[in-house]
């Protein structure tokens, strides 16, 4: 197995984490784009969601992560017992996650499901691969919200589709690689073709936002249905 060497250095993120809700058990946040979920091994990648929040909420832990470029909803546990209870909900897939995204081009179908197993390939790091034999099962649903054209400065029009994405599994890069598999990568996605269409190369961020998170409060078992509108 070849050793993975991560050379990525995150540029400084000046945006603040928005705390949407907090109690003695958990914290619900809106993560800005361009911030790591967890600090990297490289000391230059110290800044992260966890690094910032642990100053304010000592002992807090991440239940799930969002990619560096993805913004939106994350739930953070404030102690080990809450972490275990929330992790169980995620592993049993009783948590509903909904994402907003802009995809390159116009999708033919209004809705559908992408069912394509995903595998880590050390030779291609940091990319993941689709592999029916060695991959872990991965399913994502999509629904078209609108198809439109974005006018560029040079007068050309960029066809885009706004979609709602609902991952049934939680593999690394799942939505990004599944949209590429669909033939319509997420706009601004540097790893899976979202900067290849003419006019997309100057896209300021990955156009992917975690807009809904539904789960049961681990103490009260009350349903929590968090919403945060997409910034794009």
The largest β sheet comes out as: 10 strands, mixed
Strand content: 25-35%
Shape: globular
The SS-based structural class is mainly beta
**CA radius of gyration:** 18 Å
Q: Could you name the ranges where pLDDT drops below 50 across 5 or more consecutive residues?
A: none
The first-to-last residue Cα distance is: 40 Å
| Tally of individual helices | 3
Number of DSSP E strands: 12
Output mean pLDDT: 95
Protein name: RluA family pseudouridine synthase
EC number: 5.4.99.-
InterPro entries: PsdUridine_synth_RluA-like_CS (IPR006224), PsdUridine_synth_RsuA/RluA (IPR006145), RluA_PseudoU_synthase (IPR050188)
Keywords: Isomerase
Short description:
Belongs to the pseudouridine synthase RluA family. The chain has 232 residues and is mainly beta.
Give structural notes:
Helices cover about 10% and strands about 35% of the residues. It has about 230 residues and is mainly beta. It starts with 17 loop residues before the first strand and ends in a 5-residue tail after the last strand. A hairpin with an 8-residue loop joins β3 and β4 (about 70-75).
